[in-house]
Amino acid sequence: MRIFWKDILEQLSVERDVHQRFRNLVVAATGTGKTLISAFDFQRFMKTKPNAHFLFVAHRDEILRQAREAYRGVLRNNAFGELWVGGQLPEHYRQLFVSIQTLNNQLDQLKLTEGYYDYIVIDEVHHIAASSYRTVLEHFSPEILLGLTATPERHDGGDILSDFGGVIAAELRLPEAINRRHLCPFQYFGIDDDTDLRTIPWHRGRYDVAQLTNLYTHNQSRVNKILRSLREIVTDITSMKALAFCVSREHANFMVQQFLLHGIKADVLTSDNSHERQQKQQALRSGQINVLCVVDIFNEGVDIPEVDTLLFLRPTESLTIFLQQLGRGLRLADDKDCCTVLDFVGNSRPEYDFANKFRALVGKSERSITEELKQSFPHAPLGCRIELTRKTQEMVLSNIRQATLTIKRLVSLVRQFPQHSTRPLTLKNFLTHHPHIDPNEIYKRGSWAELVSKAKTEDATNDWLFKLAKKAIYNRILICDDHQYLLFLKKLCESGFSLDDSGNRQALMCHYDFWQKAGPELEFDSLAQSLAELGNLGLESELVDVLDWKLAKTRHEQPTMPELQEVPLRLHARYSREQILVGFGAVTFENQPSSREGVYVIQDKNMELLFVTLDKNEKQFSPTTMYHDYAINEQLFHWQSQNSARPDRGKGKDYIQHQAIEKRLFLFVREQAKDEYGRTMGFVNYGEVNYVSNTGSQPMSITWQLRTPMPNFMWQQAAKLAAA
Questions:
Q1: Mean pLDDT, to the nearest integer, of 393-410?
Q2: Helical (H) or strand (E) element with 612
Q3: Cys-Cys link to 244, which of 41, 77, 157, 293 (CB 3.0-4.6 A)?
Q4: Could you state, in order of their start, the residue ranges of all structural domains in the chain?
């Protein structure tokens, strides 16, 4: 069993206890089901296997010491585990907390068998692609391998999941961690610092350090802006415990001098004096200093819970590093209500990625980040505040607009790809090289094959094929997140679109995803012929890359629908309306009935499908269809019928008596009509519902009980709209 715990901020290295990581859900995907690993389960594992050998691997002394104390606390055993780091040598190797450097250097001399360790934990597992980690992983084969990381999306595109069966065991993102009170809230202030970074050279994904240093250390106006902002925002600077992230040693020393000149106790910590790390850390904790200026220190693995203020005195180009640095201030501590973050923003180059930074602060949302910005971040985590000065907001919006992908820019990036990568030019390799580019942005503008054709300045002789691929992938496949259907499509590609089962509704979904018309209209005699024609178009490679990307993004549980073996749709997966109708057998190869109503009746099966849009836009809905639909809780849903329904007869009466007349009702919900790309949004399958109660007439307000509770990722949005 291999487990991969993925969260946005390191939980293991907190000084309290290790079950901060374990007490919530850790789900390990296995061949037959799930395994839950908690603090209790870990204790039981060690009790049932008292002679089990345990290995904890990290890359810093502090992490190892904190981790050992944490595990000792969970096991109530102060003798558990030996340290092997910093000159300390173990007497035995049965429970070992060791640095990756030490283990890698001594592995050959240890002569331990591959099965020696039953349980291995690797902290900061985003380093797993490094050769030192590969040696350890290839040497040992434990019963349980647990990987822990705060930053799973590697900046270099390396693959973490391949060592864990392609599955994320559990995930806790920043907004959710704050909402659950595992981390403290933050107040983020984006402040324009009156600098222009657009002329600073950009190399390998970051600004030129020397020129950035020169700009910041010869700019008293910027220093004054920083000091003024501190005094305006921080209530008591004399009790503040702040980390200030600087661009270089020269910049850090310069800022310390400026703080001291203005009566603010400050010190510096860089690679030059890293041996003083513990001393400087303690000085900040005790209040001997109020600001510790650092350079590439405290990005990961070290916790100072008392830190209540963060000063971003430089642009942080890497989202990974930004989140690690932000995490230094979000640890819970006594008498700490929140963390104050001051981010000093210059007029940035278009390469600088503001969008993903703010997306990470807000969390998953169907709304575009520009909407969040313009509306002052209404979806910030509970208790958090994100405030930008007017000038900062204008600069950020301008940057995002400039960074918006156009066909011209995409073609240019495709054309330049061979100059920057030794890999073959494929969609998968292109996305790995440009991890900030979302395939949705590509297919909004054209197909991958079309971009490659234009980059090679070829004639658009396959224009119809490009359009076919674009519509199918953009409007159908990228909308759907049914893991099983996506896997089916991948297998179909790998088989050359050959079909054995002519009654396969997933195959029929594929037909309509691409052709969008009934078979006879296109002169296809059979479903197999339709799919065979797709096989002749040469779409397999591009489609497999899209499917792999989408599959990697699709991780939530999707149970089968009870008592509906013939319906291939999964609960809590998202589909286009037509995919749903095909899945329920309402659309066949020969017949494609059209319907855009909010309900769809399947007479021969005595079923009715209810399609609900939570956030209705007056431009897209008439006054007679502005029904008030919302979630009451995870199991109850308030639904308003069509205007003609009344409880004493007809459809309204059928709804009330649906169980008596053996009519089955199914609910499909989407947040809004259009997604952030302006594309028709798919519906999430909430599954079968049963009548609970009703009020009113023409229209009726009906409360349905969901047979399966609604997914958590929909609950917050659905609940917010209840009060709208």
A1: 80
A2: strand 607-615
A3: 293
A4: 2-172, 179-403, 407-539, 595-722
Q: Where do the DSSP E strands lie in 1-85? A: 2-7, 27-29, 34-36, 54-58, 82-84
DSSP string for 670-693: EEESB-TTSPBPPEEEEEEEEEEE
CATH of domain 595-722: 2.30.280
Find out whether 122 and 148 touch, Cβ atoms under 8 Å.
yes
CA distance 175 to 614: 22
Domain with residues 2-172, CATH architecture:
3-Layer(aba) Sandwich (3.40)
Q: What phi, psi does 476 have (nearest 5°)?
A: -125, -60
The CATH number fitting domain 179-403, selected from 3.20.20.150, 3.30.43.10, 1.10.3370.10, 3.40.50.300: 3.40.50.300
Q: Find out whether 15 and 303 touch, Cβ atoms under 8 Å.
A: yes
d(CA 309, CA 415): 44
Distance CA(52)–CA(42), nearest Å, equals 12
Q: Check: CB of residue 281 under 8 Å from CB of residue 307.
A: no
E-strand ranges in 276-359 read 291-294, 309-312, 339-347
Please write the tens of the pLDDT for every residue from 116-148: 998 888 887 777 777 888 888 889 988 888 887
Q: Do domains 2-172 and 179-403 have the same CATH topology?
A: yes
Q: Decide if 685 contacts 578 (C-beta within 8 A).
A: no
Give dist(CA 470, CA 634) in Å, integer: 36
Cis, peptide link before residue 699, omega less than 30° from 0: yes
**pTM (predicted TM-score):** 0.59
**599 Cβ contact partners less than 8 Å away, ≥ 6 residues apart:** 608, 609, 610, 611, 642
pLDDT band at 20 (very low <50, low <70, confident <90, very high): very low
Q: What gap in Å lies between CA 548 and CA 574, rounded to an integer? A: 17
CA distance 182 to 485: 36
Tell me the residue type at 81. Answer: G
pLDDT at 201: 93
